[in-house]
Amino acid sequence: MAYKITAECISCKRCLSVCPNGAITMVDNQHHIDAKLCTNCAGSIHTVPQCKAVCPTYDGCVEETTDYWESWFKKYNQLIAKLTNKQDYWECWYKTYSQKFSEQLQKNQVII
Ligand code: SF4
Ligand code: SF4
Questions:
Q1: Which end of the chain is more exposed for a tag (fewer CB within 10 A), N or C?
Q2: Is the per-residue pLDDT at 57 higher than 90?
């Protein structure tokens, strides 16, 4: 998994010079991370991904995932966090829903 720059990027150019692998370039006036060069800063002197660390936006620079549901939760968590200031809305929703569902199942098993 590599990092990618999204449409939320405001072109501040801070990330260009901090990447230890030179993975960030400008393509057609937009910032772009070459996934083949991005190592998530692993193996460098940095302990956190530098592009994300210096980015002044919330989601201008994000970790890319190929897993559909991981990507879905990430996207909508960010959206909900923006709207409500809650960071773990979907996890809470899922926990509550699965607990209620499990209680319902147990109730039905007792009836049967
Ligand atoms: S995570 Fe690190 S290696 Fe990857 S683009 Fe960002 S700064 Fe470069
Ligand atoms: S640091 Fe963030 S906002 Fe600035 S150019 Fe890079 S991705 Fe865009």
A1: C
A2: yes
